[in-house]
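Journal club side-thread
Mid-discussion, someone asked how the predicted structure for our own chain would compare to the paper's figures. Pasting it here so we can look after the session.
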Amino acid sequence: MPDSGAPSGPGDAVDPEELRLLRARVAALETDLNTVRAALPTAVPVVAAAPASADGPARHRARSLLAVVLVVLGCLLAPLSVVAAWSAELVGDTDRYVDTVRPLASDPDVQNAVADAVSDAVVSRLDLPVLLQSAAPAQRPLLEKALGALGEPLQDAVRSFVHDKARAVVASAAFERIWADANRRVHDTLDKALTGSGDGAVKLEKDSVTLDLAPVVEDVKERLADDGLTVARRIPTLHTDFTLVRSDDIGRIRTYVRLLKLAGLWLPVVAVLLVAAGVLLAGRRRRALIVSALAFAVTTLLLGVVLSVFRVVYLDALPAGVSQPAAGAVYDTLTRFLRTSVRVVVALGVTVAVAAWLTGPGRAAGLVRHLWHSGIAAVRAAAGHAGLRTGPVGPFVRRFRPWITWTLVGATVLTYLLWPYPTGWVVIGLALTLLFALSVADFLAADDTVTGGPPGHASTKETPV
């Protein structure tokens, strides 16, 4: 076949035969193109007329509806699962319970309330008219000095004296030990208290959960006797109750606590599995994951709002004789880890949503990834020009980069699952640590021949055109 290439030079003559053949080939191609164009309008209806599955759209709609229902159920169970996990830990873990109530021993409002309760119990059992007569003659000067030489009415002097001793007891390290040891000993009866059965230092009476302060009263009696008020030793053992929780709806709350305790740690697993199943059934899984993670975080955040609102309602409903500052301190302390769990779930949901969005095909996400990789590439290029070489590490990271990435992600998730009691800051810290590890892998995966060598060293890798 004659060569159909262009003339080799401006002075070469065009062969008429070659020109004729070229024109014939162009005409044949145009004929074939027209044939194809003519056949297209008839081919499209044939394809469109192909039998379609009648239940295809209906099945897709049913699957999407089921995905939505599963995600909604999982998100509605999110706050209940947080409360269930908190209830199971508070009742089932002695150390967790003691760690929860330990700060109350050093709370000033709680100390004042305990001192008031103890001093009232002690003073009510003192026979004031025979107080001086019962004191030994050698002890009367000490007693008069302690009571201010009766510079004020005897009733007020004794009450002030007893209250000062009670306040000194509850402000000491001994009270912290008494508080922690008592709560540790009675933790086994907390379950009975919340279910309304059984006796012990923690009791459920009518609408209150109370703690027996008998050891504190005994310590106060000893201090009073040592300071001259020996009649305090004649006071029988007093079982003074300190109210931990008080509510007119304690019976209904007790039922809820029992149900949540039975749910335990299974309810969070069920909530997560429902959301995961909904995401897998969704047609656009990435978008479903983003929406589900944010919805999970929002519904859990609503639990935090409910806790704040219920605190105000709870304190307003307390009787006039109950110390509101002390009751507020008890409420804040008992719900401290519950609030921490709320922050953990919110931080985790937002982190998952952001990660799913950043790895998606969206234009904004692509721009963020481009800026991220461009920044790391710039740093790597500067390091390459400074003479940094990764040696065999770079090719290894490039070859197994997907495996390295998923290993880092799996290690981060496993660390979170094995963390004893994670907080919101733990979630943020783990996310930032994973981001840093991925940036290091990205840095090491850069090719030395692309990022450049030392000054004066030319790149040896050709850039494809």
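Post-session note: The beta strands are 202-205, 208-212, 241-246.
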